[in-house]
Each structure stands twice: as C-alpha cells, then as structure tokens.
Amino acid sequence: MNIKQLEAFLLVAELRNFTRTAGQLGMSQPAVSFQIKALEEELGVTLLERNEKKVLLTEAGRLLYPEIKQMVRHYRKIRAMVNELQDLKSGHLLLGATGMPAECLLPIFIGGFREQYPGFRISMQVGNSAAVARWLQDREIDLGILGTATGGEDIEYHPWLEDELVFIVPSWHPWAGNSISLEELTREPLIIREAGSGTRQALEAKLAEHNINVEHFPGLLELGSNQSVVQAVRAGLGTAAVSRRAARDALKTGKVARVNIPGLQIRCYLYLAWPRQVSNGPSTAIFKSFLMDRELCRRLLGEAD
Question: How many structural domains compose the chain?
C-alpha cells in the first residue's frame, strides 16, 4: 500500500470517473486502474464496481473511504511539516519574554539553538508578564516566557525554570550580609516592579501571608525592569526583592549585597506559554522542545554561571 494508491482511490471515489481522475493526477487511465487494482489486491477486497457508464463504491469501499481519506490527510500534514523542518535554516519565530529571562537567560539559549540552526531568525518583544500574556492572546507572538501563569484560559502554561527572589541593599548598608526581621524590612523604602510584573505579584503574595502590603513601607518606587531596580538599590534609594539571576552580576561584583529575612523566602517559576487553540508550527515546536530539555538547560546554565 502506498500513498499514490490511496490518492487514486479517493479521487476516483469522488469523481466516479477514471478518465477525469487520470487527468487530475497527470497519469494515464491504465495507470490509475493499476493503482486501484494493486490496492484492492493488497487489502483483499473490492473497493469499486466498474461498468461502462459509472463507477460506484462497494460496501467495503464506503466503509474504508473515510479511513483512507484520514490517512491521506495525515500523510500530507506530515509532508508539510517535514518540508518546513527542512527549511528551518530560514525559519522565523516570534518570541515574547519578561525582563529577567530576556536579559539573563534567552541570549544563552538562543545562542545554543543557533549552533544547530545557524540561519534561524528570532524576533523578541520584551514586557512584563501581563504584556506577554496579552501578546499571546492577540496572537502577536508564537511563544512566551513569563513569571506568572495567569492570563486567560486560552493560553497553555508549562513550568520551565525555578527562580528565587532575593532581597538586596547597597553594599554599604548596615543590613548588607545580615539577617533582619520583617518589622525592620518595613522601615526601609521599597523599590518594586510595576503592576503586571510576575516579580511584583510573587512579592506581594508572600508579604500578604504576613499581613503586609506595599503601603506599610515608608516609600515606594516603581520601576519597569529588573536592572533598573538593581541600579536604584545600588544608588541607595531603598531595598528590593529581585530575581537571583537578575542580581547575580551585581552581587558577585559587590555593587549590592543580599539581606536574609527569615520566613520570607520567595521561590517561583518561569513559565513557557503558547496559545492553547493554535497548532504550533515546526519552528515553534522545535524551539519549545529545545527549551524544555532539562539536561540541556542545566548544561547551558552551568556554563553561564
């Protein structure tokens, strides 16, 4: 059984005419008859009744017609996917990400991916979690990486990498490297991400467990990126909870220092997200599989640390 036999059967069944089928397939009429006969012999049933005036489906033909049609449909889908995979050297992916993964992680992963697909193009939009979710809902991007899994039932979320929020202060601050209480924390101005940020949502949720909200702090500064938050802390404008990965370089170089607050450990996930009701093209599917390879993630992040 081969695809030419199946396609010939379907077209004859639809047109009820061997001559017209041969014309559409670019074959001779005897060649079409040969394909049908070979299929019938392989299946051990008669599929078509032929006479001088018309072609009719037998009972077996009527039973098998929808199944064969589905087989051909799957085959054509597979061929289309294979053709696109072979053209991945010119593939294009629209990606949306929040600040931390866009700044600290995705350059590493995109670099590793392009070692395998050097001509693959990726366009990336950067915004907070609410913006990335909105882009997914509006089909402006193919794949999103964000810090919260809230954003609509029509978005599929998959936990990707675990993250941790750490409290930081300027390196000269009396709290630097020390442990403080929650009460002490609320005596210092707080630097925080804007509304819609996954980092802010995680922080506010944790503070709420201790009946604390951002209004308890003597001052509040809202900024639009992790790096602007780190720089504001470095400048002595207050304390902040930021992604450990986003603060890594500043911590290593001593530009800021970590503060330990017992009972206020904040662990969260970064999520991969994509539109639920939209079929992923091969470009999106391959890049998504690349990101979801746990061993690969550990290797790439280990090289980066």
Answer: 3
The CATH number of whichever domain residue 229 belongs to comes to 3.40.190.10
Range of the domain at 70: 3-86
Output the CA–CA distances (angstroms, integers) from residue 43 to 32, 92, 149, 250, in the order listed.
17, 43, 51, 70
Distances (CA, A) of 132 to 180, 240, 274: 35, 23, 10
Q: What is the pLDDT of residue 5?
A: 87
* 145/276 same-domain check: yes
Partners of 168 in beta bridges: 240, 258
Task: Indicate whether 224 and 274 sit together in one domain.
Answer: no
Q: Which residue is listed with tokens 């951002």?
A: 214
119 has pLDDT over 80: no
DSSP-assigned states of every residue in 127-195: --HHHHHHHHHTTS-SEEEES-S-S-TTEEEEEEEEEEEEEEEETTSTTTTSB--HHHHTTS-EEEEPT
Same domain for 148 and 72: no
What's the rounded Cα separation, in Å, for the pair 274 and 283?
A: 13
**Residue-wise pLDDT tens digits, 206-218:** 999 999 999 999 9
Sole residue written with tokens 């690969």: 296
The DSSP string of 236-289 is TS-EEEEEHHHHHHHHHTTSEEEEB-TT--EEEEEEEEEETTSPPPHHHHHHHH
Burial class of residue 214, CB neighbours in 10 A (0-12, 13-18, 19+): middle
Reference 155, options 169, 134, 140, 176; nearest CA is 134
Kindly give the pairing relationship between strand 190-193 and strand 220-223: parallel
For residue 16, give both structure tokens.
């009820």
- Is the Cβ–Cβ distance between 190 and 238 less than 8 Å? yes
Handedness of CA 251, 257, 260, 265 (dihedral sign): negative
- Which one, of 283, 290, 292, 299, lies nearest residue 122 by Cα? 283
pLDDT at residue 304 tops 70: no
Q: What φ, ψ does residue 172 adopt, rounded to 5°? A: -90, -5
